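Project outcomes to date are best conveyed with an example. Our students and postdoctoral researchers have been running inverse folding experiments weekly, and each run begins with a structure described purely in tokens. The record below, which covers 305 residues, was selected by the lab manager from last quarter's runs and is presented without edits.
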């Protein structure tokens, strides 16, 4: 049976491929896509999600959510994703957003679903945290929480913190406190999913579909990461989706994870304890079969219109 999921995102170039991968995969039943401000503002992430969903020919409803974190100010990353969030690609406009705010929709789906639902968060965790904090009894309807968030060591927005965790660390702490299984795809894991010119060329050879073409063009627009010595661009968000589809591509370790909520330079750091023997509260993905990952992604992109 397909795994029912709610996909919470902030598109975002890597979110684009995660959305395509989720919608192209029969292993998943995407009940809704909820959107927050993150990589760029909600005024761009929401149209982007609508565009990408329409491009994939999907009728999955897309709902607007939080435009700022639970505390503090919103900060975007246009230097990575472009001012439009999709690397400047010109894509057709999608349909209007479905009615209902993201947190309300998440709660409604959890109430009505006959089976527990996986919550997949590939942006700041604000929408998911708002839903669960305002109706905690629904946690029994959550199968697991799968996140692209955090880092073992150095961050990518500050020396301490990864962007999604740093953007709303209080929301991330709320999810960790729910007691449900939490899975982290961290920066160290997603650094193993490097998009290179050779991999983009391989995608282009798979067909002429509009989604495959858009995915290739979006990734080709990005500058190789100086954090990774210019070897390529890490494809962060699809890793969380791929783990749900083919967990055998990954190795993982159960760990105790805490979030630094202080106001100083370590704010948003994910303190991942592998060695002390503290009681684990999360599973952290450690290694990725990169060739298998890109084979899966290419095969699924080629299925789309």
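After processing, the design step wrote out the following sequence:
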């Amino acid at each position: 049976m397909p795994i029912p999921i709610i996909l919470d995102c902030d598109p975002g170039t890597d979110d684009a491929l995660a959305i395509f991968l989720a919608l192209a995969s029969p292993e998943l039943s995407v009940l809704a896509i909820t959107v927050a401000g993150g990589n760029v503002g909600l005024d761009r992430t929401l149209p982007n999600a609508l565009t990408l969903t329409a491009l994939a020919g999907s009728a999955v409803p897309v709902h607007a959510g939080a435009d700022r974190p639970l505390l503090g100010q919103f900060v975007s990353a246009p230097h990575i994703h472009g001012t439009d969030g999709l690397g400047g690609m010109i894509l057709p406009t999608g349909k209007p957003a479905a009615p209902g705010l993201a947190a309300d929709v998440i709660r409604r789906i959890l109430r009505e679903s006959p089976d527990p639902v996986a919550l997949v968060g590939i942006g700041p965790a604000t929408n998911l945290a708002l839903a669960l904090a305002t109706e905690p009894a629904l946690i029994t309807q959550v199968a697991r929480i799968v996140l692209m968030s955090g880092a073992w060591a150095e961050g990518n927005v500050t020396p301490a913190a990864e962007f999604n965790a740093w953007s709303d660390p209080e929301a991330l702490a709320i999810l960790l406190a729910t007691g449900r299984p939490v899975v982290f795809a961290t920066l160290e894991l997603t650094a193993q999913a490097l998009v290179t010119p050779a991999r983009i060329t391989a995608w282009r050879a798979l067909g002429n579909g509009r989604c495959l073409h858009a995915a290739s063009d979006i990734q080709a627009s990005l500058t190789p990461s100086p954090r990774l010595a210019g070897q390529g661009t890490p494809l962060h968000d699809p890793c969380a989706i791929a783990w749900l589809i083919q967990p055998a591509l990954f190795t993982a370790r159960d760990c105790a994870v805490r979030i630094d909520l202080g106001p100083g330079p370590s704010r948003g750091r994910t303190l991942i304890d592998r060695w002390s023997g503290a009681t684990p509260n999360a599973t952290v993905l450690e290694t990725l079969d990169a060739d298998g990952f890109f084979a899966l992604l290419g095969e699924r992109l080629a299925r789309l219109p």
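Residues 3-301 form a domain with the Inosine-uridine Nucleoside N-ribohydrolase; Chain A fold (CATH 3.90.245.10). The chain is about 35% helix and 20% strand. The training component of this project remains on track.
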